[in-house]
Every structure is written in C-alpha cells, then in structure tokens.
Amino acid sequence: MSGGDAKKLVRSPSGLRMVPEHRAARSPFGLDEPPWVPDKECPRCMQCDTKFDFITRKHHCRRCGKCFCDKCCSKKVPLPRMCFVDPVRQCAECALVSQKETEFYDKQLKVLMNGATFFVTLGTSDKSELMVCRLSNNQRYLVLDGDSHYEIEIIQISTVQILTEGFTPGDFRVFQDEPEYDLTEMRTNKVRNSNNCSLSTLLSLLGFSNCTAHLCVFQPVQHVNLNKLTLVFK
C-alpha cells in the first residue's frame, strides 16, 4: 500500500472506522459521520413519538444522527460509505438505503474495478483506441489503459450518458460528440448489463440521479454489443 493510500483505525462514539490517513485520499463515495441530535433535544422517539424513560432508552442512528427508541432503531447494518469496520445501528429508513449500498460495494464495485474494454475517442479525433476502463483501487479515478494512459478524477465529471446498441459483427459505427471522451464498450449481454448496472449505481451515489442505461435488443442472435459511455467534465 502506498503512503497516499495508507489507512488508520479510529474510534468514534458510533464505532470503529478504518479511514485514510490523509483526507485527500478519501473515496468520493465516502460520507462524514453526522452530528448526533443532543439528548436534551430529543425527549421522544423521532419516529413513533414514544417518550424516553429509564425503561425506554434512546439510540442514535449512525447514519442520520437522529434519536429513536430501540424498536425504531434496532437494525445493525454495514455502512461502508462511512468506513465502519462492523455493522452499526441505524433507523429503518437509513438501514434500507445502506443495505442497497452494501450490495453495490459487495458485488458491483468489483465489476467496476475489474474494468471493461472500450473503443475510446479522445477530444474531436476520429481515431478510436482500444482501452480498458476501470475504477481505481482508491475509487477516485476512472482509469483508461491502452497504448495511452489516462486517469480521470470522478469528482470532475459533470454529466454522464450511457447508450447501448446492437450491431452485426464488423459493423462498427463512429460516434462524434462534443465531450472529451467517447467510450464504446464491446461486451457480451451478461457482462455488459452487469457493468451498466454497476456504473449507473456508482454514478447515482455521486449525485447523477438521471443516469440510466438504455438497452436496445435486436433479433439476430450473433452480434457485437457496443456500449457508448459519454463523460462531460467540469
């Protein structure tokens, strides 16, 4: 592990966390721990309005920081976006969100880090280069590897569009768009759809709520699937 990617174990009121030593090395998916609502400001459960007393204890959701009774905040769910080592207590609403994100971290993130093969067109050039596009180990860059090498910082991406079409073998089309990078992916249906889902989920975590994968199905069984990914930078 390089010095810039070094991590340390820290203890907070919410639990143990494995965090980067340097804030600049944080994953763009990371979330800061929320401030807890002070005990004196929450005499009742903020979900069911049950009054707290010696029997009914209050608990803070580790994701939103609000106060709840045990019934409304009983689930302990992994929270990788805050780098917790163990599952932590969360309210029902936050637990649902965290469970979906955990699926992304456990399954789809591996697809993105393994990468996919694309034809890449740089700038206004008509020439395409075969490259592998993958997410960097620290999750901060989209890495393009081929005869050339590029590292695109994810937080610099302003808009994303994913379009998938089917073409007969040998029928390669030239895409000419304004953005700096055009990526045309060659994948099988199974892997392509998995990669689309993973990339769409990744981008939704970063705030691209309208990012979708448009799939076009063609009658011929044998065809090459070209998946075009367009990135526009700030």
Automatic annotation (TrEMBL):
<dbReference type="GO" id="GO:0008270">
    <property type="term" value="F:zinc ion binding"/>
</dbReference>
<dbReference type="InterPro" id="IPR013083">
    <property type="entry name" value="Znf_RING/FYVE/PHD"/>
</dbReference>
<dbReference type="InterPro" id="IPR017455">
    <property type="entry name" value="Znf_FYVE-rel"/>
</dbReference>
<feature type="domain" description="FYVE-type">
    <location>
        <begin position="39"/>
        <end position="94"/>
    </location>
</feature>
<keyword id="KW-0863">Zinc-finger</keyword>
<dbReference type="Pfam" id="PF01363">
    <property type="entry name" value="FYVE"/>
</dbReference>
<dbReference type="InterPro" id="IPR000306">
    <property type="entry name" value="Znf_FYVE"/>
</dbReference>
<dbReference type="InterPro" id="IPR011011">
    <property type="entry name" value="Znf_FYVE_PHD"/>
</dbReference>
<dbReference type="InterPro" id="IPR038632">
    <property type="entry name" value="ZFYVE21_C_sf"/>
</dbReference>
<keyword id="KW-0479">Metal-binding</keyword>
<dbReference type="InterPro" id="IPR052113">
    <property type="entry name" value="FYVE-type_Zinc_Finger"/>
</dbReference>
<dbReference type="InterPro" id="IPR032031">
    <property type="entry name" value="ZFYVE21_C"/>
</dbReference>
<dbReference type="Pfam" id="PF16696">
    <property type="entry name" value="ZFYVE21_C"/>
</dbReference>
<protein>
    <submittedName>
        <fullName>Zinc finger FYVE-type containing 21</fullName>
    </submittedName>
</protein>
<keyword id="KW-0862">Zinc</keyword>
